[in-house]
Amino acid sequence: MPRKKKGNRNPPPARSRAKSPPPAPGPTTIRGRDAAGGSRNRLAIGGVLALAFGLVAAGVYWGVTQKSVAPPAPRTVALARYVGGAECSTCHAEEHAAWKGSDHDLAMQVADDQSVLGNFANAKFAYAGTTSTFFRRDGRFMVNTDGADGKLADYEIKYAFGVHPLQQYLIEIPGGRIQALGIAWDSRPAAAGGQRWFHLYPGQNIKAGDPLHWTGANQNWNFQCAECHSTNLRKGYDPKTETFHTTWSEIDVACEACHGPGSNHVAWAKKASGWEALATDKGLAVALDERRGVAWTPVAETGNARRSRVRETSREVDTCARCHARASRISDDYVHGQSPLESHRPALLDENLYWSDGQMRDEVYNWGSFVQSHMYAAGVTCSDCHDPHSLKLRSPGNGVCAQCHQPARFDNMAHTHHAAGTRGAACAACHMPTTTYMIVDPRHDHSMRIPRPDVSAKVGSPNACNNCHTRQTAQWAADAIHAWTGKPPASFQNFAEALQAGSSGAPGARGALLTLIADKTQPAVVRASAIERLGHWLTPTVTDVVSRSLNDPDPLVRLAAVEALASADAATQRRYLSRMLDDPVRAVRAEAARAFAGAGEQGLSAQERTSFDRALADYVGIQTYNADRPEGRVSLGNLHAQRGNAAAAMIEYRKAIAIDPAFVPAYANLADLYRARGEEAEAEAALKEGMARNPGAAVLHHAYGLALTRRKQSAEALTEFRQAMQLAPQNARFAYVYAVALNDAGRTGDSIRVITAALKAAPYDRDLLSGLAYFTAQTGHREQALGYVKQLQALDPENAEYRDMAKEMGGTAGMSQGR
Does the global pTM surpass 0.70? Predict the structure, then answer.
């Protein structure tokens, strides 16, 4: 099954801290924290994207025990080689037969008469002013379409990608690059609307030069898709020659993709020389045996089943998560059985990816949903429901749920409140609703939640009830459930309001997030997501709680804590993060090294410096591994800039622009580096270049406005600030700076109107409220201004600046701008 988009995390926009008076405009550097990810959040295919890892469950949370954070002991598997599925089938014929013809088997195929499903009989498809023609030539499959130069040319289809419900096609271009065509074949039956060509980005007018064009960076198979559609994939990017030498052991997802290299196991099975040394683990790279000998015993009181013994590891879920989670790949050094964060970084419950209640929003695949579920907490693994070889459900329809949930109690109208055989009577319809991606591909949400329309009414998330009852409100659905049960609905996932408050900065957010973090019964992905939302509120209380998360058994939580504390002052970093340079997991220690890079590294002891150098090598290796991406280049540039090597930083920013001229952070950071060096003319030139290529890039107009302000060209700066605000009306910072500029121009009334309008979209933004307090006080409305200060105090009770503002408001002296 084709996947959609590369699930690499893009750095979130910087969140402003409360400032006392409106600050003077400052730099606009955009940090590239993660080496991977598209410059726009719209990619096709998924592969590396979907990768990730199931992170081990921490402590004894949810019935899963992780006994230590120490790295696994060395295993003979390190020397194992890939032998191929044909070798495996000699002993595992039944499993091989089940796998044959599965979506894993057909994940990627050489284009031929058996694999290609699309119509290549001179079929035509028009999109964005270009008519593409699909045809055959000398037995090959061809397409005449627009290339990187925008001109029509003939291209050979080399590979078929996926099978159902759509199939994409791959084309080789120079530099070892393989690109995914944006026009796909709808392989569903004609009666279901299929058997047609369609574009993955309808109405978006994608043309040559756009990173989403089939020749662009965001349609590159080597980075975007390859790992999850082939076995033993090695991206093989050479930063020096800027070419790929991508290799695989098998073109599809074969036995060793999940079980690991099999030569040692084969040696043990055949009793080859030295097999005795492999007897303990049978030479397996990873033992996917967590279900062996396990039974699910019915519990009469609940109608549910209980696992016969606690699941103590997460090997199976980790293995599946590598390709069934939204994540970025940080290394080719994937070792089966090790922490997934050795080679990948998973996405958290970021607000652009998930709804605040944890339901999937963007295309996140299944891991992030599943590990927050009650099923995972109870010890369920992927293969409890899916046959791991055929990938089919263990039983069709409601039968798969009936394995653990007694049908007499749950598969009846008294429970479903829908007539048998109707859509609403299906377990998955209520507990695993679908969202359609890639135009034709509905995916089930694997958080397996109880429908909570009452939560939808509070936070705006969807719910299964209103997915069908579209003309009704969430409150209507909540009332209906209450009428059935006589009580408010309850569910395992109860973090929606805390995460929502954290995203918006609402009153009480800090306390709610701190409570989530401290609750060890909460899934690790939830606690890590709460830490991420607290990262910009590093008060002493927050720092204390976050610093304790550095000891968490789950590396995902430790990684989030390191990232949060990376923005702390040098003394706090030194106190808490130096030991994280020796964390057993690569992603964690690499992020710790990034935090210290530059000024921070100067204060390290000799021993710490040794650890820092090793961890920094990990960080550089991660970014270099992803140097085919603009994000990787910008991250390298940022590192060089932090460490005082401006020349090297500029080279990396320029390479990022060459890879993807639409990658705005590269222009912004390049300009900021020039500005820091006092080279204002060069900074403005970089911004103008970026705006010429990306006229809709609000951040560049904003940065150019700052440059004009420094040149005392206030009127011109106002124009740029206004344009930035109009291009990105959801960005409170742009509105705030525009309001400051208006006030400086003597237009205090206009500045108040701008901030008042912006507060409708961001009612809890500290900068907006702070600015509104000052500007209102300037107009003589002291009591009204004090009201805004009280709102700030409610949002951030520990902030001393707000206490000072309140005192000043209550005094006899006029408000000072305090510039």
Answer: yes
**Residue pair 138/83 in contact by the 8 Å Cβ criterion:** no
- Structural domain span for residue 90: 81-100+256-278
| 611 contact partners, CB below 8 Å, separation of at least 6 | 578, 581, 582, 589
Does residue 272 share a domain with residue 200? no
- Examine the domain organization and report whether 338 and 247 are in the same domain: no
Angle between helices 800-810 and 766-778 (to 10 degrees): 20
630's tokens: 């603009």
Q: Are 547 and 553 in contact (CB under 8 A)?
A: no
pLDDT in tens, 48-102: 222 222 222 222 222 333 333 444 444 444 489 999 999 999 999 999 999 999 9
- Asked if residue 188 belongs to a domain, the reply is yes
End-to-end CA distance of the chain: 58
- Is 50 exceeded by the pLDDT of residue 816? no
Contacting residues for 563 by C-beta, under 8 A, at least 6 apart: 33, 532, 535, 591
Question: Longest Cα pair distance anywhere in the chain, in angstroms?
Answer: 92
Contact residues for 384 (Cβ-Cβ < 8 A; gap 6+): 291, 296, 394, 403, 404
Which residue has tokens 């550089």?
Answer: 620
Per DSSP, the residues of 744-804 read HTT-HHHHHHHHHHHHHH-TT-HHHHHHHHHHHHHTT-HHHHHHHHHHHHHH-TT-HHHHH
Flag whether 403 is in a domain. Answer: yes
Domain assignment of residue 121, yes or no: yes
Q: Is residue 92 located within the same domain as residue 113? A: no
Question: CA–CA separation, 758 vs 733, rounded Å?
Answer: 9
Contact yes or no for 380/405 (Cβ under 8 A): no
Burial label for 15, CB within 10 Å (0-12, 13-18, 19+), is middle
Among the listed residues 181, 185, 214, the one whose alpha carbon sits nearest the alpha carbon of residue 197: 185
Residues 468 and 325 in one domain: yes
Q: Is the pLDDT of residue 17 over 70?
A: no
Note whether 230 and 364 are same-domain residues.
Answer: no
The last residue of a domain, from among 461, 483, 505: 483
- Same structural domain, 126 and 173: yes
